[in-house]
């Protein structure tokens, strides 16, 4: 939808098109205009960016995680999300 594209462009910091004045449009036959609005807060939550962070962990945990086929990025993200949730409540 147009609102998704608009919100995604804003989220990705791309140049947004200038708003148009519908009164200046020359419509023909069954043409019509439509107002497009976007919920930027909702889109921001949906399109969460990821950043790369280097971390240092104990060697034995690194070995254990590798042997257990644990994705360290996912594990860290889950742990931080849980900690964040706990701190908010």
Structure characteristics:
2 domains, single chain, mainly alpha, 89 residues
Characterization of the model:
The chain is mainly alpha-helical. The protein folds into 2 domains: 1-49, no CATH class; 52-89, no CATH class. It contains 4 helices and no strands. The radius of gyration is 23 Å and the shape is elongated. The chain starts with a helix and ends with a helix. 1% of the residues are buried. The mean pLDDT is 86.
Question: Nutshell version of this structure?
Answer:
Keywords: Toxin-antitoxin system. This protein has helices spanning 2-11, 40-46, 59-67, 72-88.
Topology (SSEs and partners):
Layout: H1 2-11, H2 40-46, H3 59-67, H4 72-88
Region (Disordered): 1-23
Keywords: Toxin-antitoxin system
Organism: Schleiferilactobacillus harbinensis DSM 16991
Q: How are helices and strands ordered from N to C?
A: HHHH
Tell me the number of strands. Answer: 0
Helix content: 40-55%
The overall average pLDDT, rounded, is 86
State the separation between the terminal residues, measured CA to CA. 36 Å
Helix tally equals 4
Sheet with the most strands, sense and barrel status = none
Q: Give the count of structural domains.
A: 2
User: Poorly predicted ranges (pLDDT <50, ≥5 residues)?
Assistant: none
Estimate the global geometry from the Cα principal axes: elongated
Radius of gyration: 23 Å
Structural class: mainly alpha
Content of β-strand: under 5%
Pfam families: CcdA (PF07362)
Organism: Schleiferilactobacillus harbinensis DSM 16991
InterPro entries: Post-segregation_anti-tox_CcdA
Protein name: HicB-like antitoxin of toxin-antitoxin system domain-containing protein
């Amino acid at each position: 939808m147009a609102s998704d594209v608009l919100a995604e462009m804003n989220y990705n910091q791309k140049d947004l098109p200038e708003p148009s004045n519908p009164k200046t449009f020359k419509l023909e036959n069954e043409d019509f205009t439509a107002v497009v609005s976007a919920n930027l807060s909702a889109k921001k939550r949906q399109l969460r960016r990821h950043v790369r962070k280097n971390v240092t962990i104990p060697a034995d945990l690194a070995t254990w995680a590798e042997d257990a086929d644990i994705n360290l990025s996912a594990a860290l993200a889950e742990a931080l999300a849980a900690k964040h949730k706990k701190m908010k409540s």
